[in-house]
Design a protein that fits this description.
With about 675 residues, the chain is of the alpha/beta class. The chain folds into 4 domains: about 5-180, 3-Layer(aba) Sandwich (Rossmann fold); about 210-370, Glycogen Phosphorylase B (Rossmann fold); about 395-485, no CATH class; about 490-679, Rossmann fold (3-Layer(aba) Sandwich), CATH 3.40.50. The protein is built from 23 helices and 26 strands. Strand 1, helix 1 (about 30-40) and strand 2 (about 45-55) form a beta-alpha-beta unit. The longest helix has 29 residues, at about 395-425. The chain starts with 11 loop residues before the first strand and ends with a strand.
C-alpha cells in the first residue's frame, strides 16, 4: 500500500503542537485543536503535545488516547542532565513520540507543526525521516517583536527550510516576512464552529433599555480590557443604560476586578469566568454587540464568531480585524486609545441595531469553516508531497538515503522478531529451533535486500503456541503467517473486539487469514457461540482449517469466498507469494515492482453469508482495500450487528457515511487506519 500516490489514499499527518488544551488549561491552544479537527476531515491525523516535568533524565512518558476522535499523544518529558538543554529535551521527546507512532504502524506522510518552536523540532524530524514540513504560525511574539536574536535565527531557519509557512492572518504574515523574507507563505485562517456560531432563527427581540456589551477573551494585559474599563468609567458620567459581561479567565483577572471596584463599575461589570463554546454562543446571541479592545492580536476568533452570529463588533485596528470589520459590521479604533474607545462604545450603544451584519455572516462562516480550512491544508499537503517527489537529488544523497532506509528496515525487523520470540514459543524443540533459524534467515535476507519493506517471514515450517492464551498455530514455510499471529500486534483492535465479545455471542471475521482472531473468538464465545470466518484464498483457507483443528474448535463455519457487493461472480486478485497477510483485492494499489500472482475466487455477499444468523455481536473486516465493496452487500448484516471493527485502507469517507446511515457511531482506533463503529 505504501506505493500508492498521495492523491489516491488518505494522507497521514502528524501535528506537533506547541500549545494544546489540557485539563488544567482547557482553552490553551484551542485554536490549534480546531486546525487539527479541520485536517482530520480529510486526513488520518495524530497530535503530539509535549510538556516538561521537573524530573531529570532521558525517558519521556507517553500517553496515547483518543480525544475529539483524534489520536492524541501527550508527553511528559524530563530535563536532560546537562545545562542549556531545554530545546534538546523537547526535541528528544518529539523524536520519541515519532518512533512510538511508527512502531504502531502510523507512518506520517506530512509533519505539520504549530508555532515556530514546535517547527524547530518538526524540522529535525522532517530531515531525519525525509518528510515535508508545514508550519502554522499563531504566535504574537512576531508583531510584538519579543523574540530574542538567537530565537529569531531559529525561526528564520525553520521558516526558510519548511515547505510552507501558514500564518493565520496577513497581519502576522507581514512580520514573518521581516524575519524570513525568503519563506514561502500561504495564509490559512483560524477556524470557527459553524454549527454553533450561526444566526438564530427566532424573531428579533424587542429593543431593551439596558444594552448588553460582551467581551470574550483571555484575561491578560495584552487584551486591553483595562482600557475598556477606563472608557466605561468615562461613559458612566453621561449614561447608565449598559452592562458589560466578561467571559474568560487569565492572569489579569484579579487586577481587572480590583480596577472595576476602584472605578465604581461593580454594578455593571460581571466576570463570568471560562465558558464552553456553546455557552459563549448563547451569550453572543443575547448581547447587543461585542467589544474586542486587544492591543496586539495575530487573529482574534471571538469577533468573527460574533459576526457569524449576526452581532456587530467594536474592535481595534490589529490582527485580522481591519479585513473583516467593515463599516456595515461595526467600528474600529486605534489600540490603547481610551478616548476613541469611549466614543465608539457610546456610538455603538445608540446605533448597534442599525448595522447590517447578516449580509457578511454567511461569507464569514464559509471562509472560516472547518471544511474550508481543512480543504486548504489538504491542497498544501499534496503540493508538498509532489514537490518532494520531484525534488532533484545527487548520487551521494540517494546513497545516504538508501543506507538510512536499510538501517531503519533492519532495525524495525529486529525489534519485531524480538517481540515474536518473546511472545511465541515452538510447540516442540524442533519447532523452537525452526523459529529461531527463521529469524536469523529473515534478518540476513534483509541485509541483501535492504530496500524491500515487508512483514517478517518464516523460512521453515513450524507450529507455535501462545502460552498466555493457550492457542497454537501452524506456520507455512516462506510465509508471513508468523506476523499475522503475533499476540497483541494490533492491541487496540484486539481490545475493541474482545471487550464486547462474550459467551454464546456471534463473531464474523471477514478476511480471517490464518485465523488469529477466529481462533481467539471461538474460544471466547464457547461451544454455544458461533464464529463465521470468511477467507477467499484457497491455500490460506486450508491453513485456517488446520489451525482450527489444532485448537479443537468445532464452532466455526469457514466461507471460502470473497466478501463483495454481489454474489456469484468471480474476481481475479493479485498477491505476492509468501505475503499472505498483505493480499489485496485492489491490484492497482500494490507495488508495481513486486512479482504478483493472480488468483480467481468466487464472491459472496455478507447478507447471504450471514442470512441464518439472528444477531452479530462483532463484525471485523480487514480485506486490504475492499472493505467498502463488502459493506455495499451487507445492509441486512449491518442492521443486526452491534459493533463493526474495520480497517479503512480505501474509501474512508464513503465507508463512514455508509455506517452512519445504518445508525453507527464512529471513532478512530489508535492503530493504523482502523475504526470502530457502535450502535
Amino acid at each position: 500500500m505504501e506505493s500508492r500516490s498521495s492523491s489516491q489514499r488518505t494522507l497521514r499527518v502528524l501535528h506537533i503542537a506547541a500549545w494544546y488544551p489540557t485539563p488544567a488549561h482547557p482553552v490553551a491552544g484551542v485554536f490549534i485543536l480546531e486546525h487539527v479537527r479541520a485536517t482530520a476531515l480529510y486526513a488520518n491525523v495524530a497530535v503530539v503535545y509535549a510538556e516538561r516535568n521537573r524530573r531529570i533524565g532521558f525517558k519521556p512518558h507517553i500517553s496515547d488516547s483518543l480525544e475529539h476522535e483524534i489520536r492524541t499523544l501527550r508527553i511528559s518529558y524530563p530535563r536532560l542532565p546537562f545545562p542549556k538543554s531545554a530545546f534538546l529535551s523537547y526535541a528528544w521527546s518529539i523524536l520519541a513520540a515519532y518512533r512510538y507512532l511508527r512502531s504502531r504502524r502510523f507512518k506520517p506522510d506530512i509533519i505539520h507543526a504549530h508555532v515556530w518552536y514546535a517547527g524547530a523540532a518538526g524540522l529535525l524530524l522532517a530531515r531525519l525521516h525525509r518528510r515535508p514540513l508545514l508550519v502554522t504560525e499563531h504566535a504574537s511574539v512576531f508583531p510584538r517583536r519579543l523574540l530574542k536574536p538567537r530565537h529569531q535565527r531559529i525561526a528564520r531557519k525553520v521558516f526558510h527550510s519548511c515547505h510552507r509557512v501558514c500564518p493565520v492572518s496577513e497581519y502576522l504574515a507581514k512580520y514573518i516576512r521581516e524575519i524570513a523574507p525568503h519563506s514561502r507563505i500561504t495564509v490559512v485562517p483560524n477556524v470557527i464552529d459553524t454549527t454553533l456560531f450561526t444566526p438564530t432563527e427566532a424573531p428579533p427581540a424587542p429593543p431593551q433599555t439596558t444594552k448588553r456589551i460582551l467581551v470574550v477573551a483571555l484575561l491578560s494585559p495584552i487584551k486591553g480590557i483595562n482600557h475598556l474599563l477606563d472608557a466605561l468609567a468615562q461613559l458612566r458620567t453621561k449614561r447608565t443604560d449598559f452592562v458589560l459581561d466578561i467571559l474568560g479567565d487569565g492572569p489579569a483577572r484579579s487586577d481587572l476586578e480590583l480596577q472595576t471596584a476602584r472605578l465604581g463599575l461593580a454594578d455593571v461589570v460581571r466576570f463570568h469566568g471560562l465558558k464552553s463554546k456553546a455557552e459563549v454562543a448563547a451569550f453572543m446571541r443575547e448581547c447587543s454587540f461585542l467589544v474586542h479592545p486587544s492591543l496586539c492580536e495575530t487573529f482574534g476568533i471571538a469577533p468573527i464568531e460574533a459576526l457569524s452570529i449576526g452581532k456587530p463588533v467594536l474592535a481595534t485596528t490589529v490582527g485580522i480585524f481591519p479585513e473583516i470589520v467593515t463599516p456595515d459590521c461595526g467600528l474600529l479604533v486605534p489600540p490603547g486609545d481610551t478616548q476613541a474607545l469611549a466614543a465608539a462604545v457610546d456610538r455603538m450603544l445608540d446605533h448597534h441595531a442599525e448595522f447590517n451584519v447578516l449580509g457578511a455572516a454567511a461569507a464569514l462562516r464559509n471562509k472560516f469553516s472547518r471544511e474550508t480550512v481543512g480543504h486548504r491544508y489538504t491542497e498544501l499537503y499534496h503540493e508538498a508531497l509532489t514537490a518532494q517527489e520531484n525534488a532533484p537529488s545527487g548520487p551521494f544523497l540517494r546513497a545516504l538515503s538508501a543506507i538510512r532506509a536499510a538501517f531503519r528496515n533492519l532495525k524495525g525487523a529486529t525489534r519485531t522478531w524480538a517481540r515474536i520470540l518473546a511472545r511465541l514459543r515452538g510447540a516442540t524443540t524442533r519447532d523452537e529451533l525452526s523459529l529461531c533459524l527463521s529469524a536469523c534467515i529473515d534478518l540476513c535476507d534483509r541485509l541483501f535486500h535492504p530496500a524491500e519493506v515487508r512483514n517478517p517471514r518464516c523460512a521453515l515450517p513450524c507450529t507455535v503456541r501462545d502460552t498466555s492464551k493457550s492457542v497454537v498455530f501452524r506456520i507455512r514455510p516462506g510465509s508471513d503467517d508468523i506476523y499475522s499471529v503475533l499476540p497483541r500486534r494490533e492491541g487496540p483492535v484486539e481490545t475493541a473486539i474482545f471487550d464486547l465479545l462474550g459467551l454464546s455471542d456471534t463473531f464474523v471475521d471477514v478476511g480471517a487469514n490464518v485465523g488469529y482472531y477466529t481462533v481467539l473468538a471461538a474460544k471466547r464465545v464457547g461451544p454455544m457461540g458461533h464464529v463465521i470466518a470468511v477467507e477467499a484464498f484457497p491455500d490460506t483457507a486450508n491453513s485456517l482449517k488446520t489451525n482450527l483443528a489444532l485448537n479443537c474448535l468445532n464452532n466455526v463455519r469457514i466461507v471460502q469466498a470473497a466478501a463483495w457487493s454481489e454474489s456469484g461472480r468471480r474476481r481475479t486478485f493479485h498477491f505476492q507469494p509468501g505475503h499472505w497477510g498483505q493480499v489485496t483485492l485492489c491490484a492497482n494499489e500494490t507495488s508495481e515492482s513486486s512479482v504478483q500472482s493472480p488468483a480467481t475466487v468466487p464472491t459472496e455477499r455478507l447478507d447471504d453469508i450471514c442470512a441464518a444468523v439472528p444477531h452479530i455481536r462483532v463484525l471485523k473486516l480487514d480485506i486490504e482495500g475492499a472493505e467498502y465493496e463488502a459493506l455495499k452487500g451487507a445492509a441486512a448484516t449491518l442492521a443486526k450487528t452491534q459493533r463493526v471493527v474495520l480497517e479503512c485502507s480505501n474509501d474512508e469517507e464513503a465507508i463512514m457515511d455508509l455506517l452512519r446511515r445504518h445508525g453507527f457511531r464512529i471513532q478512530r482506533l489508535p492503530f493504523s487506519t482502523y475504526i470502530q463503529a457502535d450502535k
